[in-house]
């Protein structure tokens, strides 16, 4: 998983805004946007440490190619899908769309992500479905 992907996942998980992370990590305005866009790939260890600290993830996870999850509170994607409280009336095709999207975002190599991130992302994906398509 790329640095850009890791930063994006950690940012969503944190619930913070890019500007907040920039301020906490002592980065110039717009720096987080450039990282997520892939324009900044080779950050020094000190910047990675400051960003990881501001995002609340480990330096090792953010700064390496490790597939280890970002925090200890991680859950297999499949477990969250099974326990998710699906809204009544969703069409099976819509459920499949949401499940496919979440699995795709998690990536083939990443089988676990923070539970809070997975739940919030599932809620966002379900909320984005057209209301008129519900049974």
TrEMBL record:
Name the CDD domains for this protein.
Answer: HTH_XRE
Q: Which residues form the HTH cro/C1-type domain?
A: 24-62
The record's listing under InterPro entries reads:
Cro/C1-type_HTH, Lambda_DNA-bd_dom_sf
**Gene Ontology molecular-function annotations:** DNA binding
Q: Name one Pfam family in it.
A: HTH_3
In terms of SUPFAM superfamilies, this protein maps to: lambda repressor-like DNA-binding domains
Protein name per its UniProtKB record? HTH cro/C1-type domain-containing protein
């Amino acid at each position: 998983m790329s640095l850009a992907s890791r930063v994006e996942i950690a940012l969503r998980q944190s619930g913070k805004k890019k500007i907040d992370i920039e301020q906490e990590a002592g980065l110039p305005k717009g720096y987080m946007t450039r990282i997520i866009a892939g324009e900044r790939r080779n950050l020094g260890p000190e910047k990675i440490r400051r960003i990881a600290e501001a995002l609340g993830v480990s330096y090792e996870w953010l700064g390496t190619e490790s597939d280890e999850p970002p925090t200890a509170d991680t859950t297999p994607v499949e477990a969250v899908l099974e326990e998710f409280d699906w809204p009544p009336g969703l069409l099976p095709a819509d459920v499949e769309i949401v499940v496919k999207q979440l699995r795709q975002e998690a990536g083939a190599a990443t089988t676990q992500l923070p539970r809070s991130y997975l739940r919030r992302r599932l809620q966002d994906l379900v909320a984005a479905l057209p209301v008129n398509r519900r049974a």
